[in-house]
Amino acid sequence: MTTGDLLARLRAAIKEPHTSIHRLNISRVPLCLPPHTDRPDLYLLGLSRYAELFYGIEEAWLSLIGDPLDWISQDTHIANVNLHTEVSSPENDLSPPEDTNPRIQTVLRTLYIPELLRTKTLQDDLRLLNASCPPATQILIQPPKHQETNTGQRIKHELRNRIQDKPHILVAYVWIMYSALLYGGRDIRAILLKAGPEFWGLSVAEINPQRRIPCPLSFWHINDEAEVKGKFRAGMTDVERLLSATEQQDILDEAGRIFGILEILTRSLDDDVKVLNARV
Predict the structure, then answer these.
(1) CB of 134 within 8 A of CB of 241?
(2) Whole-Å CA distances, 195 to 61, 137, 204, 222, 264
(3) If DSSP states are collapsed to H, E and C, what string results for 144-195?
(4) CB-based contacts of 151: which residues, under 8 Å, 6+ apart?
(5) What's the pLDDT score for residue 80?
(6) Among 39, 154, 239, 244, who pairs with 107 as Cys (CB 3.0-4.6 Å)?
(7) What is the DSSP letter of 204?
(8) Can you give the pLDDT at residue 92?
(9) What DSSP state is assigned to residue 77?
């Protein structure tokens, strides 16, 4: 089924849009920090929007692969105690749809690395940040139910519909979003840490780079990062042989589309900030 090096073709396809969106985001991160502001409210706003994208990816991912405890054996490199660290909750249904293509399910299971998943870290970070932010920011982050949902939530809804139609395109979302975290995330993390521990409500000891970064910055910390990067690249190499030429092209096409989504999401934050500044 293979048509060549999918990973190399993905990298080539996203090189230009990736550079553009990285610059777009990096240019805005300092605006969330001192001396531009003395509160992490703007960071909270941006994180909450991007969180919706990760929530949508991980909900779709887990719904398609099923409960990891049911298919990962006791002797794999993944300890069972860690399998549900990021995603399990009472309302989650981890039973895959009956019509799930077994081949595509294998593809998505091959890419599954528990350490990558961000749902729990995002929820924990947002909960802590939200507890200290003013009501004006809280309304922007989670509008009342009778109001229109925000851009992140609309993107999440559309993402789930697209993946339902073509489950294999989830590969594009997984590769792009978690590569951004693994490789570009270090640059953003360094900028955030320069704001100092007091800005984040932490002590000097808590923000020691040699230790796990705590909330409200735990999203940026991945256990055994070097090992995870190796597993991630290996997984992408392994799945190519399971994908048809048409599916691979769908993934390449979706990869280009994702960066358009990210630009819309980031630029919508500019409008949200204007609204926020008018309220405070």
Answers:
(1) no
(2) 34, 20, 12, 21, 27
(3) CCCCCCCHHHHHHHHHHHHHHHCHHHHHHHHHHHHHHHHHHHHHHHHHHHCC
(4) 49, 264, 265, 268, 272
(5) 37
(6) 239
(7) T
(8) 54
(9) S
- Which tokens go with 264? 């819309």
Per-residue confidence band for 89, with pLDDT thresholds at 50, 70 and 90: very low
Which tokens is 49 given?
A: 């929007």
Closest CA to 59 of 90, 83, 92, 81: 92
Reported as type and span, the H/E element at residue 57 is: helix 41-65
Q: Does domain 6-279 have CATH number 1.20.910.10?
A: yes
From residue 92, give the alpha-carbon distance in Å to each of 135, 153, 154, 162: 29, 18, 20, 20
User: Does residue 197 have a cis peptide bond before it, meaning omega lies within 30 degrees of 0?
Assistant: no
Instruction: State the Cα torsion 159-160-165-168 to the nearest 10°.
Output: 80
With both helix axes pointing from N to C terminus, report the angle between 170-179 and 6-28 in degrees, rounded to the nearest 10. 50
Domain spans in the chain, listed from the N-terminal domain onward: 6-279
pLDDT of 112 above 60? yes
The helix (run of H) or strand (run of E) holding residue 261 is helix 245-279
